[in-house]
Amino acid sequence: MKIAIDGPAGAGKSTIAKALAKKIGFIYVDTGAMYRAIGLFVMDNGLDMKNEEALRAALNQVTLDIGYADGVQQVYLNGENVTSRIRTEEAGSMASKVSAILVVREKLVELQQELGRRSDVVMDGRDIGTVVLPDAELKVYFTASSRVRAERRYRELLEKGVVDTTIDEVEADIIARDYRDMNREHSPLRQAEDAILLDSSEMGIDEVLQAMMNLVAEKNPEVLKIK
To answer: In terms of C-beta density within 10 A (0-12 exposed, 13-18 middle, 19 or more buried), how is residue 185 classed?
Structure first.
């Protein structure tokens, strides 16, 4: 079974996707982490994002692997564990920019679809239900107000010791990322026609997870019986 979760930055996609995958015994594929890793690669190597030919050549030399250590997903870029580096605001902003580039999307969509063919997966991102897994049995579009999403992200940053930003700056960045994601030329962020809309603005994590479990049960009750 394939479960596709889409939505804007800070909507809670990754948190719920990880929890759901663990609950039902599926593989969790964090596509956002994959784009962040590529964004990191572009930054580290000073690549010109407008030169698609050079970018394609550089991407052909990239290895990107997802593994697990003590149950926690780890991302490896050319053999280096970049899990902590890709969670910075800079990497997140760069991920939004590189995701608008066709050669980047083609490379990562190919890798993501292969994962979907091999395993039962929960995959979250911006175009999972529309492009990566259009045949997914369950598609959900997460959303929440920009302020709520900014508050969530701001709390995460404070917990990590990042104090050189304000909640207003975080919200402005989220709004800018929403605009880029929704208006990019290739695979823009949008709700798939057969996706279920889930607004988590007034919901806690446990409530959202239960709502997802209910949707899984409706689509494929055998999944929960096996678990």
So the answer is: exposed
